[in-house]
Amino acid sequence: MSGDLYRLAMTVLHPGYEGTRQSQGAPDWLRRALGEGLGGVVLFARNAIDAQLVRQFRAENPDTVVAIDEEGGAVTRLEVTDGSSFPGNRALGVVDDVTLTERVGRQIGRMLAELDITLDYAPSADVNSDPANPVIGVRSFGPTPDLVARHTVAYVNGVQGAGVAACAKHFPGHGDTVTDSHLALPTVHASREVLHERDLPPFRAAIGAGVRSIMSGHLLIPALDPSMPATLSRTILTELLRGELGFDGMLVTDAIEMQAVADMFGPGEIAVRALNAGVDAICVGLSTEDSLHEIRDAIVAAVREGTLQEERLAEAAARVRALAGWYAARTELRDKARGDVDEGVGLEAARAALTTSGTPALDRGPLVVEVNTRFSKAVDPATPTGVTAALSTLLPNTARVQMEAQGELPPFDERPVVLVVHDAARHAWVRETVAKALALRPDAIVVDTGIPAPPDGATHVATHGISRVSALAAAEWLLR
Q1: Are residues 310 and 413 in the same domain?
Q2: What does the alpha-carbon distance between residue 242 and residue 477 come to, in Å, rounded to a whole number?
Q3: Is the CB of residue 278 less than 8 Å from the CB of residue 237?
Q4: Which residues, in sequence order, are bridge partners of residue 355?
Q5: What whole-number distance in Å separates Cα of residue 424 and Cα of residue 129?
Q6: Mean pLDDT of 301-313
Q7: How far apart are CA 247 and CA 3, in angstroms?
Q8: Mean pLDDT of the region 172-187
Q9: Do the domain assignments include residue 344?
Q10: Do residues 285 and 257 touch, judged by C-beta distance below 8 A?
Q11: Which stretches make up the Glycoside hydrolase family 3 N-terminal domain (predicted)?
Q12: 253-278 residue pLDDT tens
């Protein structure tokens, strides 16, 4: 029994690992862990991701659930160097063409199928009801439940139609928060009735569409459970998600080293509490052999002490294996998807998503002032905003200045001026900086890559997302 118990504990652990984009191969300790029954691996931009790497995982454990955050737009792991080939959820919601969203999801699924990746931690099914939200924003399809629900379904159908599992996140909804759960525990103050009317419909819709996985959010929701965040709440995960909404797929945590839960308990206790709450897979964003074994041993000890039922652990491991089995059974679907490429769909969506005012007037290289380009912790720091690069390609004499946060504008000369901002609707200082620039240069053009707040009278273009294709679409419009 002891060996079986350790193997069950390993099956529910899904760690990420340190590595650089230049490194080759999985670390030896991770290969050993996979041979010992480790159920999954989470890939990040810091890893050298290719099909050979995934083959190494599967050589040790053919049923490995290989997972990745490939949302498109701001959150990409495969295209972090140049920016995503897809504009992201907010842009898709602005276009509001579910066929287009499904095509984008299908093409993302194809990218993952090429690498033999099992699970995409996408889409964000959060309703971005608070425009000040610091971590969801353009990762959401929009601010209303019906819009988010229909595009969540389309995205899920797209990814899973390519034979790759999708994951709706962050249950029961991270959209009505002003705190980033990477940094602290957010509280959602809405009533139970509002939650059911606003936040839950996209998850209900995803479950109805057969989504294979759901990710819990590290969110305190007093109307549902006043004492524990959703990831650690049996009331929210078992009674609501399993019981009321009827989800029977694999339930995975958001990364457990995020401060929202890490400030409350150690990793082993978080894992045990999450399993007791109804979670099946524990996502550990960054692990070592020692830290992985510590969590495994905490789970085993909890079973032996009677604080975690072995039946619950076995049920969780079975759901992990079921997801791996679903993926294994869809080889033909992935083969078909690989032969049916839709490479231009991302740029098509980015162009359709642009909202503009004024008249574009760029005929020579401008001075591009990047006012604020620091994004949430969910976005890899290396992800480029792309607008300057896109303009430089089309207008070789383009110059760039990156402002410090709330810093002073650079001096202007006779060159055209383009201000690149992100989430002007969220930041008063950004709006004030834009107003100062326009007072000096009324002809300045404003490009917003986030939730926009168009200034009166100025030429303005909103991409509704951060990606290579969004930047290219904006640059094309500016040169018309």
Answers
A1: no
A2: 47
A3: yes
A4: 462
A5: 16
A6: 98
A7: 30
A8: 92
A9: no
A10: yes
A11: 37-321
A12: 999 999 999 999 999 999 999 999 99
Sign of CA dihedral 441, 443, 446, 447: negative
> Which residue type occupies 448?
D
- Asked if residue 349 belongs to a domain, the reply is no
Phi–psi pair at 320, nearest 5 degrees: -60, -45
Q: 1 pLDDT exceeds 80?
A: no
Mapping DSSP to helix (H, G, I), strand (E, B) and coil, where does residue 387 land? helix
Using CA atoms, how far residue 255 sits from 137, 173, 246, 356, in Å, is 19, 16, 24, 38
Strand extents, DSSP E, 313-366: 355-357
- Evaluate if residue 384 carries a pLDDT over 90: no
With contact defined as beta carbons under 8 Å apart, do 459 and 359 qualify?
Answer: yes
State how far the Cα of 285 lies from the Cα of 277, in Å rounded to an integer: 20
Residues in the chain: 480
Nearest one of 158, 155, 130 to 144, comparing CA atoms: 130
Angle between helices 98-114 and 145-161 (to 10 degrees): 40
Strands 165-171 and 213-216, bridge-based pairing? parallel
pLDDT(382) > 70 = no
Helix (H, G, I), strand (E, B) or coil at 127: coil
State the Cα–Cα distance between residues 168 and 152, nearest whole angstrom. 8
Residue type, position 58, single letter: R
Domain enclosing residue 392, as ranges: 354-478
Residues acting as catalytic residues: 182, 254
Please give the structure tokens belonging to residue 317.
């491991």
Query: Are residue 332 and residue 358 in the same domain, yes or no?
Result: no
* DSSP string of 53-105, one letter each residue: HHHHHHHH-TT-EEEE---BTTB-SSSTTT--SS--HHHHHHHT-HHHHHHHH
Spatial contact of 451 and 426, defined as CB atoms under 8 Å apart: yes
Count the neighbouring beta carbons within 10 Å of the beta carbon of residue 196. Answer: 17
pLDDT at 22 over 80: no
Sheet strands (E) in 227-375: 250-253, 282-287, 355-357, 367-370
d(C-alpha 115, C-alpha 135), whole Å: 28
Which amino acid, one-letter code, is at 110?
R
Using CA atoms, how far apart are residues 462 and 314, in angstroms rounded to an integer? 49
Q: How far apart are CA 140 and CA 142, in angstroms?
A: 5
Q: Tell me: do 277 and 372 sit in the same domain.
A: no
Enter the tokens of residue 119: 């699970």
Q: How confident is the model at residue 161 (pLDDT cuts 50, 70, 90)?
A: very high
Same domain, 281 and 393: no
pTM beyond 0.85 = yes
